Sequence to fold (738 residues):
Amino acid sequence: MCKNIFCSKSSAFLALAFLLPVLNIPEAAAQAGRKTNNHDMESIYKRIEQLEREIGEIRQKEPEQSAKQSLGLSAFNPYISIVLNGKYSYYSNEESGIAGFQTGEEGELPEKGFSLGESEINMGANIDDKFLGNLTAAIVNEDGEDKIELEEAFLQTIGLPCGISLTAGRMKPVFGYLNEKHSHTDDFSDRPLPYRVYLNGGYKDDGAQFAFVLPFSFYVETGGGLYNGTHFPASAEADRGNGASTAYLRFGGDIGVSNSWLAGASWLHSKNNAARETEGIEFTGKSDLYGFFLKHTYSPGGNSRHSEFSVQGEYLIRNEKGFYDIEGGGPNKFDNKSSGWYAQAVYKFLPRWKAGYRYSRMKPEKVPAALADTPLDAKDHKPEIHTAMLQWDNSEFSRIRFQYSHDRADFERDDRFTVEYTVTFGAHGAHSF
Amino acid sequence: MKKIFLFFIFTAAGFSAADLSAAGKTPSIFACEPEWAALATEIAGDRAKTYSATAAAQDAHYIQAKPGLMAKIRNSDIVICSGAELETGWLPLILRKAGSSKVQEGGENLIYAADYVETIEKPARIDRSEGDVHPEGNPHIHLNPYNMLKIADILTEKLSAADPENAEFYSKSNKTFQKNFSAKIKEWEKKAAPLAGKNIITNHKNMSYLFSWLKIKTAGTLEPKPGIPATSKHLAGLKDMAKTEDIYAVVYAPFESPRAAKWLSRQTGIKYIMLPYTVGGNSQSKTLYDLYENSIDILLEADDK
Fold:
């Protein structure tokens, strides 16, 4: 830190050399210099102390100028952190999907055997006193090809009055609890069913978002945004700039030092005036997605490093109005509602061990007769998955996770085992709630 | 559904408008750790609202960016923290999400105490294989009481600028604090003189400033690397060391598990003690003064057996 340099006596002396023209006290320096020769340390220290005070005063008047003199160029490098994630998965039924729903590419599960999850590079820095910038790129393997995927590239205002902040660029909009989170911070190695179905794992898009933290003694934040609508679940090529919009409200607080909670309601409206195509099935129209979530954590004495118990649940409802075209068979009118939810509990029973359980479920609605026996017809089947995990953290920066899923999302059952490692290195990541 | 949603949002906005107009002028101080809250109380008394983001039973490094913290930082005028990356996992995030421009990085009212004092134990090698090291040096600076004197000056200055009406009050209480606390430091140093030169094993190097002030030597840590919990292999090594070296005590903080300290104590007969670490760390450490007084008392008592 630049300020540190003024705290040690010798460096203050050095800094003085830079500041002499400003201070206009060459005589003082000359005097100090002579005394050095005499090894009269005590009086030098006294003199230095006085000069330190003067430097301090100047520093307060011209903080920027001082900072420039004490920082090298490298100090302006952004922080960089890298996430590596890899897994080994075993499926008893590889063809397993989700009955009654079509997921986007990223809502699908990884291929069996060894696979790399998202290897992520995150860079960011304060741009100046008003903005910060953040860039997250994920290197993913899609259909056997390595691709760089831009996860986030946004700038955000800092320190606007009244708790307001604006974000512009590529982002993961605030929706529900999980959407804005990076998947490597999740408690399970895959996203719950409603996120895979409705949000393609997590909705990201180019746009602008505002957030407003209200001045209460407990936490209330409201906000929303406008997006191009070029990513799942939107497909609004013809209406770029207004293809999708969000609004949310979330609130939370602490109960004593041991308990914290967060709850929220979100809305994502997306247009599909260009067809949204997933595996030969095209949707045109519009869709509204509503989400409600609750998260509560308990850690004795607030010491979450030692033990913590957290519960979390989300309920998502989707309303789709428009036309479904099954493999070029012509448009079928569709006006339907479906929903899905998950609930999970994670217990950190030792400082380095966590165990968790999650149940997630979809509730498809009856499809119109014209769509019967298509992949959109769940035929009264209720997709559900039981997931259990055990996780070992060596440090804040590395972990190994074992996960078992009893998957009844499709008509046929699938038993899944996953072993996964996740490591982060570089800048210290945030402990988000 | 849409209507319910919009209703929610408008009601919240309405409430907040009402709340805004009712907001008082009393400055709010957001302290990351209890010791800074205690210092703020010494200077500001009841002229400012002081809030401590963490309690003595919490390890300030492992805090999450909890919603309650976001609400508090939203309404704070001055933020005072240890700095040197101690709060790096949560403070930048809540500042970014909810802080005003004055309390941002580089803002005039964000005080990182470590910026104003000389930090010790700067790692020679910045590499995570060394554990969770802090490039800027050991961030637990508050246990050297001289650092408190310096930070009291800084805080007084910032407080006076933020709340000029009470500037005189702040400067007066700072003068009283400087006088009384300096006198106490001399007393404590006299009292703690027998501790000089003793060897101590500590769980994590979070009390190094106390030890270096009292000239106590740190012979080892229960953690093999900072942030990595004690392993049996490492503890066995410490046990061997205790055979050849004269270890005075094994020390841990209120937010740390006593298990490793107890084990080593059982194996070697060396006393294990919990030091309060911060204000509120034990029932005796109610004020800043108690903190140092009680820490020295506990260390001296360890000699009895």
Observations:
- The first helix of chain A runs from residue 9 to 23.
